[in-house]
UniProtKB/TrEMBL annotation:
Pfam families: F-box-like. Residues 9-48 form the F-box domain. This is F-box domain-containing protein. Transmembrane segments: none annotated.
């Protein structure tokens, strides 16, 4: 038998890097002082993060306020039956998902995005629903950074932006799309607290976009696409659908069209792609009927939800492409359980080879305020097996963010 104490830290690190999951690494870290010493080293953890995807731990749910306010939010950890449940419970008891560490009053802040353990929130300042005060925060370590306002010379290009959220004049109304860019494993370093924020506004006949880098600490302009899809929507304006992401690209359905607005964050440029061939014959009433996810071989998988059918069933179609110009390949189709046809409310995200599906209340609970709930299920993309992920008693959820991360014992500050 090998004496663990006789092994050098370098050898132990090479062994522990091969631990199959963060869950197993967490167990190893509390089983032996030598393991704990190696695992707690920031350099080791950066290497481990680069090799292992963060597991899904729960869903962060946002809900509207009664009578028109900002509303509220809560974190729903994975159910006890899910493998991530112990890690999720540890996170829920350690993090401040109420964001009480932000400048008061906390009720003014609205969650706009969640990615890589960070949250992006904003609040209305000087009555503007477009140029808001923006904060990036880490709820586990209770850290935050306020972004500087967009400079006047850049802001001058934004003229009467259309509402992208709300629009009723209440505190949840926003005339901008603002979100975080994902970290790249290629950029993992000893001090991986850098981030990039994208700010977008749809004005009459044009798209205006800026990005902020925590390294340069400056806002810069992005070149928008010139396309008739942005200029012909003069009555209702251009409204962006659900934001999807895969391999460094973000995708939005342009409302009431079969076109994608695409932002490639590697090149920092936009394009518009016609995806009507895969949507023909399917009623696309909501933008969350189409979702993107990453494949390990560099391909992007597209999931199209055909839900508004005469038989009231829901069928998921799986396509894949390597480049936009390629012919998209139909990989698979799966029919969801019969009773899900009327409960299906879209796919909220993808992680670790799973899709995460949001379902509304069962029919028998619609008239019972106490028994109503929203459920989230996982779908294994390889085996097409379904499993319960988490549940919330909130019967009105406006936004759902899949939260992926490491347990507190293995986490590093992100801000």
């Amino acid at each position: 038998m090998v004496d663990v104490a006789a092994l050098t830290d370098d050898v132990l690190a090479e062994i522990l890097l091969r631990v199959p999951s963060p869950r197993d690494l967490a167990r190893a870290s509390v089983s032996c002082s030598s393991f704990r010493r190696v695992i707690s080293n920031p350099h080791f953890f950066r290497r481990f993060v680069a090799l292992h995807a963060a597991p899904p731990l729960g869903v962060f749910c946002c809900y509207p306020a009664l009578g028109g306010g900002v509303g509220g939010s809560q974190f729903q950890p994975a159910l006890p039956s899910h493998p991530s449940a112990p890690l999720a419970r540890a996170l829920a008891s350690s993090a401040d998902f109420c964001f009480n560490f932000l400048p008061p009053p906390a009720s003014d802040w609205l969650v706009r995005d969640s990615r890589d353990g960070r949250f992006l929130l904003d609040r209305v300042r000087d009555g503007s629903t477009a140029f808001t005060e923006v904060a990036i925060c880490d709820p586990l370590f209770r850290r935050y950074r306020l972004l500087p306002p967009i400079p006047n010379d850049l802001a001058a290009s934004v003229e009467n932006p259309y509402f992208q959220r709300g629009g009723d004049g209440q505190l949840q109304s926003r005339s901008s799309e603002i979100f975080l860019v994902s970290r790249s494993n290629d950029s993992v370093s000893e001090n991986d607290t850098t981030f990039t924020v994208i700010w977008m506004a749809c004005c009459r006949g044009k798209l205006v976009a800026f990005f902020y880098s925590s390294e340069s600490q400056q806002w810069c302009a992005l070149s928008p696409p010139e396309h008739y899809a942005l200029s012909t929507r003069r009555v209702m304006g251009v409204r962006l659908g659900q934001r999807n992401h895969a391999h460094g690209c973000f995708y939005w359905m342009l409302a009431l069209t079969h076109r994608w607005l695409v932002l490639d964050t590697h090149k920092m440029d936009f394009s518009i792609v016609d995806i009507s061939p895969i949507l023909t014959g399917r009623a696309m009433m909501f933008s969350n009927q189409i979702t993107t996810l990453e494949s390990s071989n560099g391909w992007t998988t597209i999931v199209v939800s055909d839900v508004f059918r005469s038989d009231r069933r829901c069928i998921l179609y799986f396509y894949a492409f390597l480049n936009f110009s390629d012919r998209w390949q139909l990989l698979n189709r799966i029919t969801l359980p019969d009773e899900w046809g009327y409960r299906f409310r879209g796919i909220i995200g993808a992680a670790d080879g799973y899709l995460f599906i949001k379902l509304d209340d069962p029919k028998e609970n619609l008239n019972d305020q106490i028994e109503r709930y929203v459920e989230y299920f996982s779908l294994d993309v390889k085996t097409m097996q379904l499993g319960s992920f988490c549940r919330t008693t909130l019967f009105t959820v406006t936004e759902s963010y899949l939260y992926c991360g490491f347990p507190p014992s293995l986490s590093m500050p992100s801000i």
